[in-house]
Amino acid sequence: MYSPTAIVLTVGVIGYLIWANTGFYSWWVNKKKFEDFKTNNPGSFDGNKFISCPACGGDYIFVRNKGKVSSHLCKQCGKELWRSRT
Ligand SMILES: [Zn+2]
Fold first, then answer.
1. Residue 14 is inside which H or E element, if any?
2. Which UniProt keywords apply (predicted)?
């Protein structure tokens, strides 16, 4: 009753769902991690406080929630500065 094709398909779908729920978000966030942003733009911080956007000097961040992850953007120029898990 279970054909090999159906089994392969089921395993594939389950594997994809697991990756989509965990791996994809980690991968996406890791492309623009907060730690990396801070390391690359030390002038944007005073201690842990964000003080200026590296592109425009704006000092206000807004967070765009995308479900399991968030984009942290400069409110003035709209540049995506870093990403995080929510
Ligand atoms: Zn900016």
1. helix 4-18
2. Membrane, Transmembrane, Transmembrane helix
